[in-house]
Amino acid sequence: MTAYRRQGEVVLSRASDEPSQDPVVASFLAFLERDLQAHPENIRPVTAGTLAEAKRLTSGIEVDLDKALPEDDDDA
């Protein structure tokens, strides 16, 4: 069962027994697969330098994964 809030209401829906697949995600993953097979030279490891740069770029940004999104952020 899935529950979510939409415009102040709680909406429940019965979950399907079949795994669902998002067509956008599936298309993107298929594109990625084709591109990586066609251009394996573009595959690069995540190096210590790359990780350090990512940490530098995101330093000071705090994220609370348990915090609810604002109501106006609901595009359902």
UniProtKB/TrEMBL annotation:
Molecular-function annotations in GO: DNA-binding transcription factor activity; toxin sequestering activity
Pfam families reported for this sequence: PrlF_antitoxin
An individual GO BP term: regulation of cell growth
Protein known as: Type II toxin-antitoxin system PrlF family antitoxin
Organism: Chromohalobacter moromii
